[in-house]
Design a protein that fits this description.
Distance between the termini: 72 Å
Strand order of the largest sheet: 14-15-16-13-12-18-19
Low-confidence stretches: 1-8, 10-45
Bound molecules: 1,4-dihydronicotinamide adenine dinucleotide, magnesium ion
Number of domains: 2
CATH superfamily of the largest domain: Aldehyde Dehydrogenase, Chain A, domain 1
Number of strands: 22
Helix content: 25-40%
Structural class: alpha/beta
Length: 532
Amino acid sequence: MASRRISSLVSRSLPLLSRGGQKTYLGRGIHRFSTAAALEDPIKPPVSVEYDKLLINGRFVDAASGKTFPTLDPRTGEVITHVAEGDAEDINRAVAAARKAFDEGPWPRMTAYERQRILLRFADLIEKHNDEIAALETWDNGKLYEQSASIEVPMLVRLFRYYAGWADKIHGLTVQADGPHHVQTLHEPIGVAGQIIPWNFPLLMFAWKVGPALATGNTIVLKTAEQTPLSALFVGKLLHEAGLPEGVLNIVSGYGPTAGAALCSHMDVDKLAFTGSTETGKVVLELAAKSNLKPVTLELGGKSPFIVCEDADVDKAVELAHFALFFNQGQCCCAGSRTYVHEKVYDEFLEKAKARAIKRAVGDPFKAGMEQGPQIDEEQFQKILKYIKYGKESGATLETGGDRFGTKGYYIQPTVFSNVKDDMPIAQDEIFGPVQSILKFKDLGDVVRRANSSRYGLAAGVFTQSLDTANTLMRALRVGTVWINCFDTFDAAIPFGGYKMSGIGREKGIYSLTNYLQVKAVVNPVTNPAWL
Ligand code: NAI
Ligand code: MG
């Protein structure tokens, strides 16, 4: 297939983007693609990206096998374009490039200030292309364009500026050891990092992984999710335009069991970082152990409790609990997917939560005012419908929703179950869709025990007006993040990660740096201790 540039992708998308009208339909910025004039005179390609190729050693190259696979528009299930299908041989090529760039290239050897400036230039370039990147992300993923343009891409910028700030602030320690020794630690880059990311937040996952690895001087082979390969290639190209040396970031599109597994097993990869399902996380860990024992950070699934206490302002709690579950079509590892409500406010909460879900605006994610777009693909769509069926069969009460939305694409009706019990599959497993499970609790002891009874421990939400209750719950909950009277509050500086089967390690913030650093102890005897 002929190489596809962003211009052809954008111009092919024009009829879709312009279908409902202009500015208001398309949201901030994108309207310039939607005018008739733009259709006749397509904008000049801002960046030439070859989506049907892999980005290896600073160049777009064909997959060794020559194979490609389609990436789909979740609104319709139709093919957007075909991308290169990387496999083990391409991973070998990408790792060789990253190895050479680490062992011989300028990246780990240049000053931290020079690395910082490249990352900052990259952030500026993303900002310049905010709307094109947002449109590409929404097209490939189905998430709301307004959120892509006003949250996800700006967060990508913010994250890279944050990590750029760390680049020249990596310090070791001097250590007071026994004996006449001068002892210090050097914090050195770990080497070649293998990174595997999922499809639910392709750009944020790119930033969480690539940002700290580059700031600390590592080189990378990144495998994108097969559902959303496009946006990483676009921003990867921008990173090279910002001055990244060849071989430092290599991007391989491809499937998990082929390209992903080859990366995990590779003997020349020094570190792995993975985000995705707990099931695949176990495979990643096993492959790392069976090959060269490379250290692994894992950010996995969740079944996060959202706890509405008896003193809560019910209207506010309903809105926040709704957001906690339904944001991003429910496709969040930290989704507040067990809504625990105190028995005193349960009936009022339930009635209002149901009304809120009924009101939720579902439709084309490019259209302004929409709250929910399609799920990512057929597999996730079927998985969610299966769990809705389990919910009905296990005796939970279906309050609203429960079926597909419309007749085309992967849309699902906002769904609410009440009378949910802790042992039901909808209260135990990650559904990853717009399905809210509401459970009743009696007192704090009851809800702490039940919230903690999950095999997951990623996050929790607490809604209360009592400082005492908040203080108690924040300590009692066995999770990596507790949001009090807020939810999904993300910031580059706030660490994120899971207890229990939700993962190993932390990303973002100062904690993410240690994932990509080796600590070297240097011991130097003082030969004339008498002089000290
Ligand atoms: P997945 O965990 O299989 O895929 C995530 C990434 O891992 C993708 O890049 C995939 O290609 C790669 N992968 C798959 N098999 C691999 C293997 N054997 N070796 C190396 N890499 C491999 O998740 P999937 O199938 O996309 O979704 C299944 C469920 O996982 C979802 O329904 C959801 O419950 C959960 N999930 C959780 C995410 C999170 O943010 N923690 C993100 C995506 C999915
Ligand atoms: Mg897609």
